[in-house]
Amino acid sequence: MDRSSYHEKAKNDLAVYRYLPGSFARLFFAGLLLLAVPVTLACIGCSHRQPVIADLRHLSQSVSDYTGDEPDRPMGDGRFWAAQNKLYLERHFAPWNNEKPSPDRNGIERTVAAAMINPGYAENMLPHDPLWIESIIIETDLDSFPSMCREAITLRETSVRSIPTHRPSFRAPEKAGEGFPFDYWQRSLLFANVPLRVIHATKSKEWLYVQAPFVSGWVLSRDVGVIATEDLNRLRKGKFLVPVKDKVPLYDEEGHFLFRARIGNLLPAEPAKEGGYRILAVVPAGDLKTTLRRAVVSMDDFTSFPLSPTAGNMARIADAMAGSPYGWGGLYGNRDCSAFLRDLFAGFGLWLPRNSYQQVYEGTGVTTLSHLSRREKERFIIERAVPFATLLGYPGHVMLYIGEKDGRAVVLHVTWGIRSDRCLLGEGRIIVGGMAITTLTPGEELPEVMPENLVINRIDAMRVIYSDKATDKKQGGTSQLQP
Hints:
The protein is of the alpha+beta class.
């Protein structure tokens, strides 16, 4: 409750008090009013105060400070990485290689039905008009789905949406962890020059339903171009570069701006006459057509794919993504927890799904931790987890274990915030809003953070995603761990 609301409530209470008969009743309600003043003001303080958690003050926020004594030692077995790199390229170019895609029409219909049943709240924090939702559903033209099957590519960064609209759908905006920035129609972000297969178009052709390497959904047609067969073959074979800095501007040989390369981009390249490389960038040529341009690059900003899998290189890439705000589903071109880790490992040729649950709970090397006490859990993580190779998570969030400091496990993650108790106002959030290096108990020192909301008490799974001889020794000779 803000101060103006408090004063309005006080006036209303006073009006009620004046109409009550009898001196006892007046004294009773006057006492309640006086008691409400400090309690309400205390809650005002709770809700408006935005503390900085101690971990962010006391722990270095540079990932490079956690790489240990051998930051340049390759991690993992060479055969493992060769297989992963091959798999990465197969999945990256899958939309072009799969000539008979099987789009999940049932999933699309469920999404449409959910929008009708629960349209959510709009950007003005008022409920969406059901008639407007119905008009969007008619626009999807699902009766003719799928209506296309063409190889394409993103021409610029674009959002992938569950419903063909850029208007948001928030749930219960008054509740913490809902409302802004949690737009439930935002699926993900695609960088420029990502392979696609176009499956369908809305009636107006403003939106296209596409299958990308790791997500499917609706994107604006102006952000997509169709690839000619000869260009397609040229782009998926040969050498590739990956950025080591984020949002690197690319220019063609005449100095015209093309797009910004992002950490997580995989970009085809060819040798330049003067040495180094030129990136083969796809740009629009009108009417959904595309053409290739050579982009001038500095090898200070790019390196050959794949990067050598060392802790030092991983720290370098992670630090290059620091400072950006949290972005639910890639909102505003930013990253959430799973997008951050996916992009971090992309340059090393290690494929991670886009969803945090899939990253932690699916695949090999998964260990359940939910039955362990807080002390047992942290000890197990320190003893068995491999720095820069272990994911920790609970439903809705994923973190990367990067080592220990002073006997405490340390993790790297992108997070919106820490759950808190806002006195009489209910659940709140202590906003972090970006990349953070923390212990497993960030906010423990704050009275508004309840023990059950501490990260250590919520973590229920650990996944070692790759290992080498040193890792196997630490794990007792197996990557399939059992506590």
